[in-house]
Amino acid sequence: MKKFALFSVLIFVILSLSSCVLIKDNVKPLISNFTKSATLLSQKNISFSANVIDTGSGLENVVFEIDDSPLPTFKTGTSVYVANWIGVYGSYNVTILAQDKAGNLATKTDTFFVNDSTPPIIEFNAPKTVAVGVKFPIALKAYDIQSGVKSVSLEIDGENVPITNDDTIDWTFSKIGKHKILVTAVNGQGLVNTKKIDIMSISARNAPPYAQFVNFPSVVKSGRSATFTIYAYSPNGIGDVGLKIDKSERKLYANTNNLYTFVLKTDDAKSRLVQATCTVYDGVGIEKIIHKDLVVLSKNSTIAVIIPKFSVDTKRARIPFFIASSKRVKISALVDGIPVDIEGRFPRMTALWESSPGNHVFGIACDNHVLKKINFSSIIPETRVIGVTNTSTQVIVEFSNKVKFYANPVFEIDFIGSTLLLNKKDVIVDGNKVFIPSSIITKPCFARIIGLKDSYDRVLNFSFKIKR
């Protein structure tokens, strides 16, 4: 009997173990309907979506990645996972990874290209008011870090003026009056930007003093000399023109062509950002000061990244940085490892980021190698009612941030005891103010507007007091 009982126990254990082996999950999660936005443009939202199910042990984790950098991923419905990313010009891989509780991993990858959505940026540098009959410089630079600049053109008073990109020409107006300047730039995507500028030419005796950097190196080597050229004019004549960089300083006196060329040496120190300061005194002692940032590369370096101090307190954050390099490099910016868009031109750049509150890491990569990282915090200011003003026709509710409607506005008033649906045409939103018809408010009350978001896309849902 004992032998039979022992045999029965052994049979039970063997069957149990066999059962465990049979039910072990070795099937990967199923990924289907893996899609992305139909339109793929820089600085625009791109959505990724997929259905993911696991009929075995259940899902442990699902995440989308852009070039191996994870995106915030959310579940909507029973099996749909989504992620959003603000597009950056260039080619990318998006991968969805789904892992179940048994450790089985399923992946799908798609390669796509994000097109340029922004026209080139135009820099036009010339005096707004000039002396008639006096030669002055016009400096033109168009840049597009994404698809590049295909062409530039310049018109002065309707006349086409030959010019190349990143060029400076001399010009003279022979007549007094307003002169119209039109600059057109086209990028590699075919996007066009135009800039209109008015320049007044007046009699020489009334023209204001003016100074402008004409030749300014983008990067200089530490401890070495560099050449700088400045245009300076005054109807009173020029007394002297001085330029100071680091500890180097030089002064030049008046000449006939209004151009002043300096050769100055920077201090022998680390890579850094310094300021070039030009001070002009005209013939009667009127002072004119201009400044410009200069990137200095240490003598033993071929590349350096300089990130000045910055703060993030807006939804659309702009993070400045500088690149000092002795060669041409591919530049990319990342926040928490995720690529963000860049605008600007070498060496001064700006990273564009749709901010979110919390602690983050900002990094700059050159030729796909991250050279510098810094930690920073994003603080999104609270949105609250800061004032309620009554007029004979309107109640004006003022918020601490800009607001907008995301749905039809609903106005709740406590003494009515029910909600009142208002048409958008009856309620006006202008910046950080909401204008409500006073006809619906007959006595002091607490009220609430439903259907508002602030400029950070946060839904607003709180009461405020109205006095009548």
Record the SSE blueprint.
Blueprint: H1 2-23, E1 30-36, E2 45-53, E3 59-66, E4 69-70, E5 73-76, E6 80-86, E7 90-100, E8 105-114, E9 121-125, E10 129-131, E11 136-143, E12 149-156, E13 159-161, E14 167-171, E15 177-187, E16 192-202, E17 210-215, E18 219-221, E19 225-233, E20 238-245, E21 248-253, E22 259-265, E23 272-282, E24 287-297, E25 303-306, E26 316-325, E27 331-335, E28 338-345, E29 348-354, E30 358-366, E31 369-378, E32 385-390, E33 394-399, E34 403-413, E35 419-421, E36 428-430, E37 433-437, E38 445-454, E39 459-460, E40 463-466
Parallel strand pairs: 10-16, 18-24
Antiparallel strand pairs: 1-2, 2-6, 3-4, 3-7, 5-6, 7-8, 9-11, 11-14, 12-13, 12-15, 15-16, 17-19, 19-22, 20-21, 20-23, 23-24, 25-26, 26-29, 27-28, 27-30, 28-29, 30-31, 32-33, 33-37, 34-35, 34-38, 36-37, 38-39, 38-40
Fold and architecture overview:
By secondary structure, the protein is mainly β. The protein folds into four domains: about 30-115, Immunoglobulins (Immunoglobulin-like, Sandwich), CATH 2.60.40; about 120-295, Immunoglobulins (Immunoglobulin-like); about 305-380, Immunoglobulins (Immunoglobulin-like), CATH 2.60.40; about 385-465, Immunoglobulin-like, CATH 2.60.40.1220. Helices cover about 5% and strands about 60% of the residues. The protein contains one helix and 40 strands. The protein has a seven-stranded antiparallel sheet, with no helix packed on it. Strands 10-16-15-12-13 form a five-stranded mixed sheet, with no helix packed on it. A five-stranded mixed sheet has the order 18-24-23-20-21, with no helix packed on it. Strand 12 and strand 13 (about 160) form a beta hairpin. The longest helix is centred in the N-terminal third of the chain and has 22 residues, at about 1-25. Residues about 1-5 and about 15-20 have low confidence and may be disordered.
